[in-house]
Design the sequence.
């Protein structure tokens, strides 16, 4: 029911996740990012407890493979889970349970994982994998979103996407610099709408303001975003 890219940027040490799905509110359940630690998505029949446990275990020095082994022993329903773990450093790790339903699978590179379940076929994950590699020169958020858009272009879910999300945390940041979500599409997929399209529109509007909301506005209450943006685009 969900397709996702989980990744790190070795140059900036940012961590991020972008994903889309047919149910509502995916960004409230599946993606978890902790600065300087890891990005983890728990999906299919998602279990947010696995992601939080995984983040703690990465912080305590366990590898992704060790974490998946521990989670499998802890969770009696692990066959229904799909979990992708990208630590700040070290090998990535991914699990697609045998009961995640058709079509479910994953692929990974050195710094990222593309994975999904309930998709039209393996071409979705393959297209995402290729897109992440092809967009290496883009800003990290843009790269993640283009990866999801490639999955959408390859067919995504058969019934369309009703929610989507994009979350990115900088190194040494107390909170994500970007945390955008479409919890419910304004126009449902059966009427021509889609959460991936809405996430793109939202991100394009928000992108110029990432530096503003990341730190500037905290100490400059007298400068609104319109003024800040006008001064930088004049």
Sequence:
């Amino acid at each position: 029911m969900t397709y996702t890219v989980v990744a790190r940027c070795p140059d900036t040490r940012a961590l991020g996740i972008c994903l889309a799905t047919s149910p509502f509110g995916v960004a409230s359940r599946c993606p978890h990012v902790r600065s300087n630690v890891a990005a983890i998505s728990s999906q299919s029949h998602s279990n947010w407890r696995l992601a939080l446990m995984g983040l703690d275990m990465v912080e305590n020095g366990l590898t992704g493979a060790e974490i998946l082994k521990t989670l499998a022993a802890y969770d009696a329903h692990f066959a229904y889970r799909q979990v992708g773990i990208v630590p700040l450093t070290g090998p990535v790790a991914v699990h697609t349970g045998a009961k995640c339903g058709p079509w479910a699978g994953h692929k990974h590179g050195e710094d990222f994982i593309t994975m999904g379940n309930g998709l039209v076929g393996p071409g979705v994950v393959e297209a995402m994998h290729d897109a992440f590699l092809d967009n290496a020169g883009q800003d990290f958020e843009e790269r993640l979103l283009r990866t999801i858009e490639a999955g959408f272009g390859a067919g995504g879910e058969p019934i369309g996407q009703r929610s989507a999300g994009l979350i990115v945390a900088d190194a040494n940041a107390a909170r994500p610099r970007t945390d955008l979500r479409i919890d419910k599409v304004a126009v449902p997929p059966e009427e021509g709408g889609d959460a991936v399209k809405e996430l793109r529109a939202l991100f394009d509007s928000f992108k110029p303001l990432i530096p503003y909301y990341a730190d500037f506005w905290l100490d400059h209450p007298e400068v609104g975003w319109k003024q800040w943006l006008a001064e930088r685009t004049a």
The two ends are 44 Å apart (CA to CA). The first helix runs from residue 48 to 59. The helical segments are 48-59, 64-74, 123-134, 140-153, 195-206, 210-214, 225-233.
